């Protein structure tokens, strides 16, 4: 399945990039921080749009060794009417299956929720995490949940911080330097991850 997801993402990303460029002015920065980076890797980003996964994939070189990006995706009842309509049609589950997404396990406890991404990391994969858990429309960062920190502590994988800013039709995506989450506990680790992402906001 890993090779299948790699093929899908390598083909789909240039297509989505072309489509998004027709509607948005997208600026990517920080690609120099990706040189020599290898999986296992956790990518931690704030969450601004439904296509954040594609924006982050666009930062990577085409057919990057970091692909495929595996990510959590919800497939239960959504608050937004459009997403809920797509869920009822089965489109959310279909997108999850073909894109490399996996169920978030929300509400089952952190230990259960990180089992799948931990297995992906242990097998040399890349996991994309959105610690906020939801789309945050405000300019500030939202509340960060502890799942990303718990995953980093359990796996020992490095973390690549990403910051996404949306200003009308302008979208800015910045990658920071990878770091290790050597925190003493999940709470401290979550604060460190949030600080690293926030640093990119000030740099932009």
- Using only C-alpha atoms, the radius of gyration works out to 16 Å
| Parts with pLDDT < 50 across at least 5 consecutive residues | none
Secondary structure tally, helices: 8
Helix % is 40-55%
Across the major sheet, the strand order is 1-7-6-2-5-3-4
Structural class: alpha/beta
User: What's the total count of β strands?
Assistant: 7
What multimeric state do the chains show? single chain
Question: What is the overall shape?
Answer: globular
Intertermini distance: 37 Å
What proportion strand? 15-25%
| Main sheet summary | 7 strands, mixed
The residue-averaged pLDDT reads 86
Structure description:
The protein is of the alpha/beta class. It contains 8 helices and 7 strands. The protein has helices at residues 2-23, 52-59, 81-88, 91-99, 110-113, 115-122, 147-155, 186-203, and strands at residues 25-29, 41-45, 69-73, 101-103, 126-129, 158-167, 170-175. It has a 7-stranded mixed beta sheet, with helices on both faces. Helix 1 packs across helix 2 and helix 7 (147-155) crosses helix 8. It is globular. The mean pLDDT is 86.
Main features:
globular, alpha/beta, 8 helices, about 200 residues, 7-stranded mixed beta sheet
Secondary-structure map with pairings?
Blueprint: H1 2-23, E1 25-29, E2 41-45, H2 52-59, E3 69-73, H3 81-88, H4 91-99, E4 101-103, H5 110-113, H6 115-122, E5 126-129, H7 147-155, E6 158-167, E7 170-175, H8 186-203
Parallel strand pairs: 1-7, 2-5, 2-6, 3-4, 3-5
Antiparallel strand pairs: 6-7
